[in-house]
UniProtKB/TrEMBL annotation, chain A:
Coiled coil: none annotated. InterPro entries: Nase/OxRdtase_comp1 (IPR000510), Nase_comp1_asu (IPR010143), Nase_comp1_CS (IPR000318), Nase_Mo-Fe_asu (IPR005972). The gene is nifD. This is Nitrogenase protein alpha chain. Tetramer of two alpha and two beta chains. Forms complex with the iron protein (nitrogenase component 2). Its cofactor is [8Fe-7S] cluster; [7Fe-Mo-9S-C-homocitryl] cluster. The lineage of its organism: Bacteria, Pseudomonadati, Pseudomonadota, Alphaproteobacteria, Hyphomicrobiales. It comes from Bradyrhizobium rifense.
TrEMBL record, chain B:
It catalyses: N2 + 8 reduced [2Fe-2S]-[ferredoxin] + 16 ATP + 16 H2O = H2 + 8 oxidized [2Fe-2S]-[ferredoxin] + 2 NH4(+) + 16 ADP + 16 phosphate + 6 H(+). Gene3D superfamilies: Nitrogenase molybdenum iron protein domain, Nitrogenase Molybdenum-iron Protein, subunit B, domain 4. This is Nitrogenase molybdenum-iron protein beta chain. The gene is nifK. Transmembrane segments: none annotated. Binds 1 [8Fe-7S] cluster per heterodimer. Residues 1-56 form the Nitrogenase molybdenum-iron protein beta chain N-terminal domain. InterPro entries: ChlB/BchB/BchZ (IPR050152), Nase/OxRdtase_comp1 (IPR000510), Nase_comp1_CS (IPR000318), Nase_Mo-Fe_CF_bsu (IPR005976), Nase_Mo-Fe_CF_bsu_N (IPR024564). Tetramer of two alpha and two beta chains. Forms complex with the iron protein (nitrogenase component 2). It comes from Bradyrhizobium rifense. Belongs to the NifD/NifK/NifE/NifN family. GO terms for cellular component: molybdenum-iron nitrogenase complex. SUPFAM superfamilies: Helical backbone' metal receptor. One of its GO terms (molecular function) is metal ion binding.
Amino acid sequence: MSRATTQSVAEIKARNKQLIDEVLKVYPEKTAKRRAKHLSVHEAGRSDCGVKSNIKSIPGVMTIRGCAYAGSKGVVWGPIKDMIHISHGPVGCGQYSWGSRRNYYVGTTGIDTFVTLQFTSDFQEKDIVFGGDKKVTKLIDELQELFPLNRGITIQSECPIGLIGDDIEAVSREKSKEYGGKTIVPVRCEGFRGVSQSLGHHIANDAVRDWIFDKSAPEASSKFEPTPYDVAIIGDYNIGGDAWSSRILLEEMGLRVIAQWSGDGSLAELEATPKAKLNILHCYRSMNYISRHMEEKFGIPWCEYNFFGPSKIAESLRKIASFFDDKIKEGAERVIAKYQPLVDAVTAKYLPRLEGKTVMLFVGGLRPRHVIGAYEDLGMDVVGTGYEFGHNDDYQRTAQHYVKDGTLIYDDVTGYEFERFVEKIRPDLVGSGIKEKYVFQKMGVPFRQMHSWDYSGPYHGYDGFAIFARDMDMAINSPIWGKTTAPWKDAPRPSLMAAE
Amino acid sequence: MTQNAEHILDHSELFRGDEYQQMLANKKALFENPHDPAEVDRIREWSKTPEYREKNFAREALTVNPAKACQPLGAVFAALGFERTLPFVHGSQGCVAYYRSHLSRHFKEPTSCVSSSMTEDAAVFGGLNNLTDGLANSYNMYKPKMIAVATTCMAEVIGDDLNAFIKTSKEKGSVPADYDVPFAHTPAFVGSHVTGYDNTLKGILEHFWDGKAGTAPKLQRKANNTINFIGGFDGYTVGNMREIKRIFELMGIGYTILADNSDVFDTPTDGEFRMYDGGTTLKDAANAVHAKATISMQQYCTEKTLAFVKGHDQEVVAFNHPLGVGATDDFLMTLSRITNKAIPNALERERGRLVDAMADSSAHVHGKKFAVYGDPDLCYGLAAFLLELGAEPTHVLSTNGGKAWQQKMQALFASSPFGKNCRAFPGKDLWHMRSLLFTEPVDFLIGNTYGKYLERDTGTPLIRIGFPIFDRHHHHRYPVWGYQGSMNVLVKILDKIFDEIDRKTSSVGKTDYSFDIIR
Ligand code: SF4
Ligand code: SF4
């Protein structure tokens, strides 16, 4: 429902509070108490959003969250294209995450590049009973034989590994030695660890630290001469090409991107990152750990940025440039100016069609806040948001830089809550994941997947903004939403009319 | 700059622009430590050789691109086929996020399912509290009529006992004592999604027929004249179930479809989200014990279920995803024999139309070689149909097929002159298939969406039949069973055959011939 039905902030707050009270009624008492801490109405001026986060999901409520394996294999490691990532355990986890995340890359798939292959140890009962170390040892030999151009191997643990007492670290060390110091990385990202994908990110970051940084010199595989303008893109998974439409801007302003973490990334890029002068961090949630580590260990500063929508892009380009000399500062201005006509044209075309429309979001690591600016650039209003696996520092950033007074906040939302909230608020658009998409479309509410960009993208950078604007328009203004009710549904029944 | 507000470029075009291509080339040359292109070519060519195939087939530990999923996926699929039933998977929560996504990506529909969200402490102390709280929450929030419990591999490894846990959790008041909570253990390290389907369906029938885990008297079978029908794990469930009902109705057969998820995976967009829709009623599930016989369309999805049903004195018959004239004849004649109902003229005419279509088009299929992969029953059904068309199902591969399946396939091949050079590959994956396609090429490949990687690598055109189909829309709405369903499959195969001829003859000034208007 557009701003046409203007409500005062006080009214919105009262409605949202009432909504929260209403949804909590469905729960058994104990659960209601726990869920109450995750639901809130944002008060301007507060330093956070007033919710608890990064806490165990409650059984049986239909959480949207995934697991640590998804955070490690699915998010952080999976996109590293010249390494082979073994889904170690039964077949399922690797199968469901096979190719579904759209981490774009270029390479000869199956020969020197492996992102869209599903490698698994496909555990059988005997592997559970006798342990899987022997199997993965042999598996590595087979990989070496059949995929000789792989640059390294990671072992992504699924649930059983940590429960049956396997020692994948020992296997990794042994095989690495056998293959002349080959990079083999054991990752303890069993799905039962932690409360969501989030711990998987952390574990994956630590594995880079322990098994790549600590084992190789930055010069190992990258022979390039450092320049004062070398940066690394951290926390961009190149979904639909996001990292590429970001990289092009950085290069146009005069910086040199020496590594992408991890979309379209390679082992050589990971290894070379300590040579960067600045790490620029997009998804804070999934890669702040390694950024902090590089700051401590190698003295590399890091800065967060946001490449969604022209306002935040310009702000970010200037922020990044502020770490460098005038040449780069001028470069940033030049880039902003260069793309201004595109921004103007996109805005002129889409803002009139989108102005005043309302949006509710529920996504993963950075998007529940990062995309708000892009919507605002199009005259839209985000009226509700929440994180699947955010921590308090995410909610702080959200409160301090992004959301408006009165925004409904829902952490680790349950299926039931989200449905009720949307039903009552009736936003013009919901942005969330594949599991939510069809629920809301059935309700007649336009929807965009904000993990996979609904198979579109990129959404980062200026080139991405044009696609973003078009996609939101396409969703909201699709003629199909005028057809969800059969025309005879509310019309008087002919028989009654005849009786009159 | 490449992007343009008037004509906004998608990723498929945007990145092919010069600026991006240059950028990517620089990235590769400077920072990626790439292999020498000659070496990449050499390995690529080597990977196509018989020598590589031999090493590839010698694999013992490594699986690459399997064509199977894990048990709980099948459990969720089966449970969703019952009236207002909420699938509840006991174990860690990430798996449930995966099952829901996987099914939704195929059907383009919501998939409702909950998890008991077990974490590290549950790994140590067991998941009883998770199950108890979870049942109570689900019951209150989503008002299901039944909660069907399965397990992830975590719960299996630590050895949680569902029967005992459900009992205890009911005692603790999670759900009413007489509330239906059927269950099945579905370890992911045994079998595949078809096994999970089987275990869950059996669990549900056992619950209703055999005294609800000791809380009610066992049902006494009073044989009647109806039959039970089981579809098995089936990506075409929406189209197939409706086709089957139509056939039953044409024949005047009294029937119960067990695990009928055709409505819940096909709800309308009319302003209302239906978390539950359609499905086998719990009453019908219970009364199914009285049926005369139970028919399964997919033997390998229902081995345990049928054994259980047989133990209740019903006749059981299993098909292997019947497709084509002969297999559908068999199916209908079996129905007719069991129910004493004649096969009506309407179906006979449909049969005649299928034969008509096959006669019209067989010249284009005859003698063509196919590679087929998928679930064991689907593979069998497709291979039989291809043989009927005079085609050769040269390589038939099923990652979740076993020895018995292999023998059955080989017997099928032996039954037809077109099967002479055909071979079944149980337990193999799509990387094996890649070697097969390079070393013993075929004309077409039939399989699910992942087959597109094989199509790209080997140039074998892919006909999408199977599960999952993620990259094409709405195929699941069309049946692939019965004479009409077989017709749909025939048209799919023919379309690809004709498209290929056009594709190969479409360069002007070179192949103006053969680019025909009439075929
Ligand atoms: S952890 Fe086990 S049950 Fe879960 S998706 Fe993976 S294989 Fe399947
Ligand atoms: S927010 Fe995005 S980049 Fe970060 S973990 Fe989620 S999907 Fe990934």
